[in-house]
Every structure is written in C-alpha cells, then in structure tokens.
Amino acid sequence: MPVLRGTPDASTRPDRPELIDRFGRVATDLRVSLTDRCNLRCTYCMPAEGLDWLPTSEVLSDDELVRLLRVAVTELGVTDVRFTGGEPLLRRGLEDVISATAALSPRPKISMTTNGLSLAKRATTLVEAGLNRVNVSLDTLDRTRFHELTRRDRLHDVFEGMAAARAAGLDPVKINSVLLRGVNEDEAVPLLRYAVEHGYQLRFIEQMPLDPQHGWDRANMVTAAEILASLKTEFELTPEPAARGGAPAERWLVDGGPAVVGVIASVTRPFCAACDRTRLTADGQLRNCLFSQSETDLRAPLRAGATDQEIADLWRATMWAKAAGHGINDVGFSQPDRPMSAIGG
Ligand code: SAM
Known about the structure:
Layout: E1 19-20, E2 26-27, E3 29-33, H1 62-76, E4 80-84, H2 94-102, E5 109-114, H3 119-129, E6 133-137, H4 143-150, H5 155-167, E7 173-177, H6 188-198, E8 201-205, H7 224-232, E9 237-239, E10 250-254, E11 260-264, E12 277-280, E13 285-287, E14 296-297, H8 299-303, H9 308-320, H10 340-343
Parallel strand pairs: 3-4, 3-12, 4-5, 5-6, 6-7, 7-8, 8-11
Antiparallel strand pairs: 1-2, 9-10, 10-11, 12-13, 13-14
Helix pairs in contact: 1-2, 1-9, 2-3, 3-5
The protein binds S-adenosylmethionine (SAM).
S-adenosylmethionine binds near residues 45 and 137.
C-alpha cells in the first residue's frame, strides 16, 4: 500500500498546544530515528544485503533535526526523547545532537535504543553529552546463535557495551529481547538469569509485523503468555504494584524483587489506549503510530522556510489524526511499507 502523505484534517481539533488526539491521549514521548542504516543484519529485521538506504540528501541534517526537536519540546510538550534507528550509534555527530537536545528547556529526558556494538567506546562521551538511559537489544547469549541471528560475530561487543554503559552511570541498563520460534525461544530463562545476575533490566518484546520480508506469521510468533509460562518454570513472578502509565511493558517482580522483568505484548495485549508516542523518521517524516499507513512530511516545509508555528501545527494535526489502535488484530490489517529499521524501533 502506498504511503499517504498530506496534511491531516484538524478542523475539529480544540486549540491546545500539546499533541492531543481524538481519543484523549497526549503524546509526550518522541521516538527519533537517526539513520535507517545498521551494522547488524538481524534475520527478522533486515535482509543480509541490507536495504536501499536513504540518500544522504534526504536525511535531516543535525541542524534540521535539532530545530524539530526544539519545536517538539518547547512548543508541543514533548518531555522524553528516544534516539533510535537503524543503529543510532552510526549517526555522525550523535553526541552533538544529544547535547543540543539536553540544552533545550525544559530539558527532556534523553534515551537511546541501540545494538550496543560500539557502546564500550562511546558510553562515557554519550553520558557527558546528556544521555540519561539506554536500551540494548540482545536476543541471545550464545555466540554461535548470535552470529546466525545477526549475521555478525559481535556478541562480545554487546556484552562490553552494556558493561560500559553501566560503568558510565546509565541506570538501569535495559535489555530488549525478541524471541523467535525455533531460533531462541528457549532463552527466556537464561536471558532473565543473566540480566538479574548483572543488574540489567530485561524486557521481552513480542515480534510485530514490521519486517521488510513481510514474513511475520501470527501463528508462529512467541507470545507473551508463552514467555511468562517459560519464566515461571524458574522464577516467581509477581505483578509490579507501580502504575504502568503509558509504558509499553507490563512488569513483574522477579523472586520478590528488586529485579523486575517486562513483557511488551504489542500483539496479544495491545496498549494503544495508553500510547503517548509520536515518531520522526530519519528523513523527516512524522508518524503517529508504528503501524500508520500515512506520514506527514516535515522535511519539505522545513527546507522551504516554514515557521516553527507552521511546523508545530502540522505536528498537531498529524497526532490529532492518530487511530485508536494499531489494528494488527483487525481483519484487513496491512503492514506499513516502511520496516521497523526505517521507522525507528
Ligand atoms: N539498532 C537499534 C537496536 O538494535 O536496538 C535500534 C533499532 S532496532 C529496529 C530496535 C528494536 O526493534 C530492537 O530491539 C529489535 O530487536 C526490535 N525489532 C526489530 N524488528 C522487530 C519486530 N518485527 N518486532 C518487534 N521488535 C522488533
């Protein structure tokens, strides 16, 4: 299905500055993809040869990006900025983008989702620039399996990256794991044991229909229920009393705590009613949902001299048009054209 572009209709929108939608939600959490490129080739995310990368001229420059971040934070009430990709550590000038974001007022919380490969070298400078939190993606603890799954023999770099992140003061270091049938579905318990032993906070994410090969199969995905059943064979899990808010993960105390484990059940237990996210792709396209079939182009107006006010209004209109839910479980659901790596996971 082609991506729909244009300015969404906001004629019924109340005149309020923040990013409200028709269902009473307010978006305060901005996910920013810094690049669509990655240095891993996880089989469920990217083909071995990579994808057709965005031409450099289409990717927002640092100045363009920081201007949009300023509009988001100072005009639209965004309080949390998460940098992702592709692999955000591949973005030249990442530290500069982070420090410019940290200089905004009110200062947003700044986090990053990364594969961790060069985190060992960069953790300290990233923290000095203003990074507050990090999520590292890690699906297996087995070197051979990691090599097969990511098509790169770099497991050791991920371990070192996580240790460096914690040594640099990032706390908690979160681990994101996707379990795949017949690949690593047997690793729920070892991954949690590893996370607990090292003081990292683990979250399992259900696989979503966002792969470029369009190979996702509901019947074959490892569900949250299966993951929890597997964990309960080894650990006592009790629901965490703290309110979940807009957080995607349902969390459990592990063996009475303080360790916790999260499960993000986007498919089997969607949390769209509490979604507080807005998304910007590396080429300056705004999305109100991971699964949106439409995008609003901010790059063209930005480059044509739009005012901050005009950009803010486009952003507001885009979020006003956000659907009630992602629709994965609806008859007739169709996957967005952009894969996860090009939207920003
Ligand atoms: N390169 C960074 C990283 O590895 O964390 C950021 C981008 S990556 C796309 C972000 C996260 O999305 C990773 O944890 C990855 O496992 C997850 N992911 C990729 N495809 C997915 C899918 N179809 N369903 C659920 N999670 C997915």
